[in-house]
Amino acid sequence: TLTGVKDFSVNTGGFLSATNSSLSIAGNFTGDGPVSAASSSLTVTDGCSTNSSQLSGKLQFQNLILQSSVGKPFTLAANTTLTITGTLRLIGTPGQPVILNGLSGARIILMPGSNVVTVDAIISAPIEHRTPTIVAVPTMSSLGLLLMVISLLSSAIFTYRNIQPSVKNDS
Description:
Strand content: 35-45%
Distance between the termini: 92 Å
Shape: elongated
Radius of gyration: 30 Å
Helix content: 10-25%
Structural class: mainly beta
């Protein structure tokens, strides 16, 4: 668990592995290095006198909470990919909505089973809903099915003909 941080950055060449972790910041989150936090939560809130917060890089979180009581805008930097595997939560207050903007090329990807919860919030960043992968079930052609039925019937008839009833002779 990491709390009370203004800005958090994973620099180029760095690596963040945050399994089942909770990160709470008030400023910017930059992921220039790999960010492996697919089973973790990031909360970005008011604090540290920041007027806005920016998320950048290729980021993946189970849960992301963007929360403000003063209408703080949150921005996805240009070409940022934010992948959510659980819940994206945006929480503002009446008259002071949370705003999530996306600059050029920024996108939010919601994986299967994930969702978005908003309370007094505006989302102007593109959201992609990924669908579950459907695996094709192998099937058989009509000719193959016909040959299988003929084979099974032949086998059943052959088995039936070869069964000899046992007869007792009491003489």
